[in-house]
Amino acid sequence: MAENKTHVTAVDPATYLAALTPARRASEGQALLELFTRATGVPGRMWGPSMVGFGELRYRYASGREGVSMRVGFAARSTGPVLYGLREHTHSAALLARLGPHRESAGCVYLRRLGDCDLDVLSELCARSFAARTEFEIDPG
Prior knowledge:
It is a single chain. By secondary structure, the protein is of the alpha+beta class. Helices cover 33% and strands 29% of the residues. The chain starts with 12 loop residues before the first helix and ends with a strand. Strands 1, 2, 3, 4, 5, 6 and 7 form a seven-stranded mixed β-sheet that branches. The protein is built from four helices and seven strands.
């Protein structure tokens, strides 16, 4: 059975984010680290080389494949922040409608600039998503 490619690493998220270039990317990453930490109540950990995740989520597919992933998280990409795990709860659509400019695909929310978004809405979206994502989910497909 295939193993997950993305695992928790020992890299400190704050150190990783501070080293990003350009400076806007680093400052947006640091701001997201603070926002997600406050909203979830848990410290961020690096998942793979570039994603910062909060909490863990065990999952199992109908095929029997199991794994562990972050409950919510983000990546400070050069094209703008990518947010993970924020689209799966009952209030997601309403909160995303108030977030500000973004686009969505699969389980991701893509921002161009963090400063264009309503950070209070993002914080609520993060907190609700973190709470709603259970420790074990079964994908029916």
